[in-house]
Amino acid sequence: MTITWSAPETDGGTEIISYIVEKKDRAGIKWTRCNRQKITDLSYRVTGLTTGHEYEFRVSAENIVGPGEPSLPSSYYKASDPKYKPGAPAYVNVIDSTKSSITVSWGKPLSDGGSTIQGYIVDVCKAEEEEWKMVTPPTGLRVNKYEIPKLTEGQEYKIQVCALNKMGVGEPVVLSGTAKPEERMDPPQIHLDSELRKGITVKAGGSVRIYIPFKGRPTPEIKWTKDDGDLSEKAVVEKAVNFTQLSIDSSDRHDSGKYTLTLTNSSGSVSEFVSVKVLDTPGAPQNLVVKDIKKDSVTLVWDAPAIDGDLKDGGEYQFRVCAINSEGVGEAANFHGTVITSDRADPPEMELDADLRKVVSVRAGGTLRLFVPIRGRPEPSVKWEKLESTLTDHAAIDTTSSYTMLVIDNVNRFDSGKYSLTLENSSGTKSAVISVRILDTPSAPQNFTVKELKKDSVTLAWDTPLNDGGAKITNYIVEKRESVRKAYTTITSNCTANSFKIEDLPEGGIFYFRVCAVNAYGQGQAVETKETKVSEVPQPPNKVTLVDVTKTSASLAWEKPTHDGGSKVMCYNVEFKPKSGDKWGTACTVKVPEATVPNLNPNEAYLFRVLAINEKGKSEPKDLGLPVVAKDVAIEPSINLLFTTYSVKVGDDLTLEVPVRGRPKPVVSWKKDSLPLKQTSSLTIINTATSSKIVIKGASREHVGKYEITLANTAGTVTASIGVVVLDKPGPPKGIKVDAVTSDSITLSWSPPEYDGGCSISNYIVEKRDTNTQEWQIVASNVARTSFKAGRLTHGAEYQFRIYAVNRITAQYNFKQPGPPSTPIVKLATKSYMLVTWNEPVSDGGSPVLGYHLERKERSSILWTKMNRGMIKDTEYKVTGIEEGMLYEYRAYAENIAGIGKCSKACEPVAARDPCDPPGTPVVTAITRTSVSLSWDKPEYDGGSKVSGYIIERRDLPEGRWTRCNFTNVPETYYDATGLTENSQYDFRVIAKNAVGQFSIPSFNTGPITVKDDVDPPRIMMDVKFRETVFVKAGETLKINADFAGRPAPVICWTKDDKEIELRARIQIISTDTSTCVSPSAGTLHSLMVVLRSQTTLLRRGTPLRDHTLQ
């Protein structure tokens, strides 16, 4: 944990040299020291804590005399890693697009907030709009790449990505510029395996398979050739969207050669070749001719076969030649000796294609392949180098006798540069340089510094990045972060210069700043400043004055600077120089705005100036103005009174100290009420070289008055007055008179007391006593005027009256402090403020309550904080400055003229969240004689936490009180209110409650509802064809359907000729709550009627039906 504190108000007269930090575990009783080394700062990082334990801390200051008293202990704090929402992802780039989609990728945030990143959320917004739409699941994506589908072709979109941890969603990183879904045109690229580049060797009769993946958009056209000619008929070419394969089965010597794949689309063309060697018996000798013929011999001459069957390099071979005629093969003629196969000596050569002679461009994250065909005998050695730097460790070099290839996967900006290829053998050396440009985001800007620092602004400057990523830098993004936060906020994303001025910063704030360059490929690496405090050198001190001068010293005083530059002034430098000199010297450095410069030469003139110093440096100097001659001078006495009036409570002690200045030392004399002041046992006068004191012990009324102090010396005389007031009970009122008498009242008047006790009279207390009793009774305790009419007196009785004057000192004797108010209630809670109410105390202590004080604390804290500066006159207070989601408790105090009473009980913790909206207005869905069924809609806003239940309230109309209907939780949005009285009227409303215990305000009322059975006469609905005569053939089945309605549910009865139909095998009747059906066989019925009878009424509905059976 890192703890901070303020310097003590007094340093004990000597500079503080260190601080001692101590800690105590909540489970322990012993304080232990945290630091072994000296601490000179006002903060310290405490280590070695046990995770999950709670600690309190205290700090002691130490000077040369020793350590002082420790501070009060801090609150308890739990040792645990802090957790925040994650920072913004490092970058976001568009890596692909189609007509209806855009694919983006992003980097991990620099800070995960102390909690594992659970996923990422991608939002899109049309470029001309401001409403962002989430396109990923709310739980986020686990990967760092996402294809955004279902986009409109040609529409420009803004894209942002946020990281998500268990603390919530972090700040977004916004794609620089906009992105448009469109088909991308990519030139073809062939991914040739390194083994294929070495070539393929197979034995005769074997199969050749050349599988080559590729990519390109649109899909490129595929063409295979052999030795710059067409393929043989047995070669089979397989073509797909992203690969091609050449297959040759039963290969022979004629299949050896160089197979070239060429890919072509509208964006370009690319070729690669694969060498195939088939190991077979030699081919037929060539150019066989008969050179010489004799009668018994023939001389033949031929050339070596075109295919040698693959002789091995360095092998030693014997050769022989046979002749063949129609009779067969003749005897062989042997070549004398052996032949060793070896290559000819050729100097090394390389073939750089046209693309390698230009600048090779590769996107960051892709693969760099520099393929160079080579030749030379003997096989040359190959050396790849990167000019002006070393070759990266992850570069792979593949070299064969016919080619060399440099491959670097996942390239970045640092792989840009010039690459040198050197071939060397015994026949010579060959070199070439290939320029490579990696298309990437820029590197970090260079020489990033704080160029100018002022009290409310910072000017940053930087140089262009070393590497621009292969594209022109379009702009810079400047961000800032407060030292107490983890995440950066963007100040500007469109800075085109190499400097930027950040204004309107809080004075004295501590910030980190960073800047990154942006090119066509996105946002580059950022560079960060060190911790920067927004401040500047202070302004010069004000009003430098000469306080005193002697022949060897001069005393100066000055006022603090008008502005400290945003950083506390640490000290002042006092500089001086002889009037005739030209070099300023430092006389002394002090922390207070006064100093004495010693060791001056008598009678020499000096100039003085003062500079203020803070952590940013020295201010401009402030000159004294006039030269000062070092000599003793007579100084007129002066008196600097801190106060002109002093108040003391009766019986307490009082010390009047007056600073005294003057040269020579002035004579001091005191007067009281224009008479010389005499010392007594309770009043003592003490004079020193720099002050004069009056010490009063046990102040009483005799010490009240006007005190005068007079200082006199040869330079002059000065006088000052001080008033002393002794706070006591007022004296008795004077001149009580009876102004009027009636049969039941007496009117009194009086004059205020001569001595009011040092404070104003607030009211008078009037008491009476019947002459027949000894008991005094209070007639009135809060009389504001000096007259009073005592009423309700007994006719003919004699009374005595006495009157007290009351001031605030009297109140402390006669009245008690008020009792505690009622427990506060949070009437309304939002995420930015709370409205707290309470009731008056039961007891006001005998004096009216003047006002209230309200305190607050967080649930996890033990420290109460006062909310109001002035007294709260009402029993309601709006509390602001709260933090969303925190739980707060409140308590209140009442105050009367006797002081502040005891605090109330603390209310239950209440969360600072926006309140839950009320449910929708309840709707009546059914009514019976004893119940009402209600339903309602959920609240539009749940207060940030799921609605867990509802409270249903009712009241009897017209003047009933609201009472609760349900005493168990109702999680549904419907309810049956039972136990009601028939024919009574009720009103209903609903209150929502969410998971954190917040209640909404009540919904709108339903309005008057009368509780009685809801009766609806029965109705029959059937097809119109049944209202006419129905013709049915004999033997067929007749089915008659009828729908009905009514409340209560009607009773169904089918009749024939006014008689109820009896169920038989040939007749079926099927009924539900809303329909009925009868199925008689034709010929059994001639007329039917369905009758519906209500259970509660005599209403009857019937429909006759005619059946005519065709015989």
TrEMBL record:
A GO CC annotation given for this chain: M band
GO molecular function: structural constituent of muscle
Keyword vocabulary terms for this entry: Immunoglobulin domain, Repeat
InterPro entries noted in UniProt: FN3_dom, FN3_sf, Ig-like_dom, Ig-like_dom_sf, Ig-like_fold, Ig_I-set, Ig_sub, Ig_sub2
Pfam families tied to this protein: fn3 (PF00041), I-set (PF07679)
Residue ranges of every copy of the Ig-like domain listed in the record: 188-277, 348-435, 637-725
Recorded superkingdom: Eukaryota
GO biological process assignments: cardiac muscle tissue development; sarcomere organization
Occurrences of domain Fibronectin type-III (ranges): 1-82, 88-184, 444-537, 540-633, 732-833, 918-1014
Gene3D superfamilies: Immunoglobulins
Protein name according to UniProt: Titin
Organism: Poecilia latipinna
Biological classification of the source: Eukaryota, Metazoa, Chordata, Craniata, Vertebrata
